[in-house]
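fold description:
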Amino acid sequence: MAFIREAIRRSPYFTKYIASLYDPGDAESYRLGLRATNLFGRVIDNLELKCSLPVDRAFQWAEERSPNHHKYALTRKWPVGLIGSYGLDKIENIPLINQNRELSNFDFEITSASNSSGGVKEMKHIKIAEYEYVIKENGEGERFRNLREAEEYMCKAFGSQEHYDLIGGRYVDYVTIEGFDKLTHARIILEIGNKPKPKKPRFRKVQFDIVPASAVPLLVEA
């Protein structure tokens, strides 16, 4: 897989799909969206070339962040990108992200850390798939700044649980990480490790993935 490069990004085919994320007439949001596409490409390059984190999937979408949305008013939308690198062996390379000069500008923090030994939570209780053993903040209500801190808190939180066990010698085998770009106002979400794969309920439609149906894929077959 490869990131959609400049020639493809500027093609009518691709820009049509990026434009579909925004309201007609909202040129500023669309402009930031296109700039964010280049940003996500640089993030992918750094992850793959400098952090040994090959990217398996990448998507872009737009979100509203205003609490005062009105259906008859034009509300600014902001870019969001999700980039996934999957497999247990990827966990050990997470510290390289904030050691990378360009990626460190986004102030990445771990928003959730999981251990898959307890299995996936029943989908009737949640909207987005996650493991039974998951932590989303430390004891002071803050995100985790690094993997070691998340592993220590995971051990404290679930180490005494009957079904808790190390996965490949690791306390944590799946994390979500989030950063922010000040120029495009883009949220950058990274998924790394053993992504949860829940069973879909037979008689109920659910969105078990954070990626919305409107999202535009940013990877093509190389």
Observations:
- The helical segments are 6-9, 12-19, 27-50, 95-99, 147-158.
- Residues 52 and 221 are 20 Å apart (CA to CA).
- The chain is about 25% helix and 25% strand.
